[in-house]
């Protein structure tokens, strides 16, 4: 897994980049995100995580939602 340069908030531009990427990506039905996290419904996972970021991305504690989306992006390539 790649290490990400963490900061205290996610910008609107970063959210938009992920939204655009996932709109055109060929999404699998399920994904093993890491040893303890299997995503059973990838489109729902993406929608829920993007929603949290749109509503709370400026708050650093929600960075984990951004990180998980970056992990998924890395996996599905």
Structural write-up:
It is globular, with a radius of gyration of 12 Å. It contains three helices and two strands. The chain has 77 residues and is mainly alpha-helical. A hairpin with a 2-residue loop joins strand 1 and strand 2. The model has no long low-confidence stretch (mean pLDDT 88). It has one domain.
User: What is the strand arrangement across the widest sheet?
Assistant: 1-2
Morphology: globular
How many strands, what sense, and barrel or not for the largest sheet? 2 strands, antiparallel
Number of domains: 1
Q: Which stretches are low in confidence, meaning pLDDT under 50 for 5 or more residues running?
A: none
Report helical residue fraction: 40-55%
H/E series, N to C? HEEHH
* Rg over alpha carbons: 12 Å
Tell me, rounded to a whole number, the average pLDDT.
88
Binned strand content: 5-15%
* Oligomer class: single chain
What is the total tally of β strands?
Answer: 2
Distance between the termini: 13 Å
Class from helix and strand fractions: mainly alpha
What's the total helix number? Answer: 3
Q: What attributes characterize this protein structure?
A:
77 residues; mainly alpha; two-stranded antiparallel ribbon; 55% helix; globular
Please sum up the structure shown:
The protein has 77 residues and is mainly α. It contains three helices and two strands, in the order H-E-E-H-H.
């Amino acid at each position: 897994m790649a290490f990400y340069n963490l900061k205290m908030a996610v910008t609107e531009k970063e959210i938009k980049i992920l939204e655009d990427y996932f709109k055109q990506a060929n999404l699998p039905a399920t994904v093993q995100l890491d040893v303890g996290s299997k995503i059973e419904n990838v489109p729902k996972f993406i929608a829920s995580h993007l929603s949290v970021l749109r509503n709370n991305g400026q708050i650093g504690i929600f960075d984990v939602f951004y990180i998980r989306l970056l992990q998924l992006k890395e996996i599905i390539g």
